[in-house]
Amino acid sequence: MPIFGGSSDPGSDVFRVCPECGEDEIFSRTEGILSKTEYLCNHCGYEAEKSEVRKSFDEVYNENKKKNDEIIGEKLEKVVGKEFSEQVTKSLSNDIDDISDPELKQQVEDRKVEGWEIEEVSDSGEKVIMSTTKGGTIGGHALAGILTGLSTFGVGNVAYDKLSKKKNKERIVLRADAGESSESQNDVSKGSVELMRELKQLHDEGLITDDEFEEKKQNLLDEM
C-alpha cells in the first residue's frame, strides 16, 4: 500500500478472504500517511475492520512456507518418484502447522520457548515427539568414565563429547488427550544397551582403536 495515498491490489497475500462473500478480493485504501486506512472488498463492497482481514506475520510466513514445501514436493516427485517424494516432504513439514489440536499446539509452542525442538508429528497431528539436548553426564560420572576411560588415549575427549551430546538427549511425547510423558535417554537401565551401540559406532568411525573398543566394551559389559 502506498505510504502517501493510494490503494493496494485486491487479493494480496497479506489479506484474508472477505468475511462477507468469501472472495479473495480484499484491498486497502488510504488518502495519505495521516489518513485512516480502509479495508474493502472489491467483489461485494464490504468494509472490513483491519483485524478481520489483515493477516499476522505468522500467517503469512506459514502460508509461504507451505507453498514452498509443495513446490519442493512437486520437483522431488519428478526426479525421484511419488513415494520417496512424499516421505521427504513429510519429514520437511514436521512442524507446528501439522498439529491439529489447538491445546496441543499451545503446549508445543510453550516447549519451543523453553528450547525443545519438534522431532516428529504423527500423521493425525494429535501426538508430537519433542527433544532437547542438555549438558551434564551420561547417566552419571561412573558410566561416563567407563566409555572415556581413566586415560583418554588421546581420543577420550572426542569420544566423550560425541557420546555426551547423544546420551543427554531427552525426549517427551505430547498428546492432545494425555498431556506429556517423558522418554529420557538418561535412564541407565535402558542406556547401557544404547551406550554399547554408540561405542560400536565410535569404533566404526575410527574415533577409538580396536584395543580401546575391546577394553571399554568389556568394562561396560561388567557394569551391565
Gist?
With 224 residues, the protein is an alpha+beta fold. The chain contains 8 helices and 8 strands, in the order ββββααααββααββαα. A hairpin with a 3-residue loop joins β7 (169-175) and β8.
Shape summary:
elongated
The tally of domains stands at 3
Strand content: 15-25%
Summarize the main sheet.
Answer: 4 strands, antiparallel
Number of helical regions:
8
Oligomer: single chain
Taking Cα atoms only, what radius of gyration do you get, to the nearest Å? 27 Å
Number of strands: 8
The CA-CA distance between the termini, in Å, is: 68 Å
| N-to-C order of helices and strands | EEEEHHHHEEHHEEHH
Which range best describes the helical content: under 10%, 10-25%, 25-40%, 40-55%, 55-70% or over 70%? 40-55%
Write the layout of secondary structure elements.
Elements (H helix, E strand, L loop, with lengths): L5 E2 L18 E5 L7 E4 L5 E2 L1 H4 L3 H24 L1 H11 L9 H12 L3 E5 L5 E7 L7 H8 L7 H12 L1 E7 L3 E6 L3 H17 L5 H14 L1
Detailed description of the structure:
It contains eight helices and eight strands. The strands form two sheets. Strands 1-2-3-4 form a four-stranded antiparallel β-sheet. The protein has helices at about 50-55, 55-80, 80-90, 100-115, 140-150, 155-165, 190-205, 210-224; strands at about 5, 25-30, 40, 45-50, 115-120, 125-135, 170-175, 180-185. Helix 7 packs antiparallel against helix 8. It is elongated and about 80 Å long. Helices cover about 45% and strands about 15% of the residues. The protein folds into three domains: about 1-55, no CATH class; about 55-95; about 100-224, no CATH class. This is SHOCT domain-containing protein. It comes from Haloferax sulfurifontis.
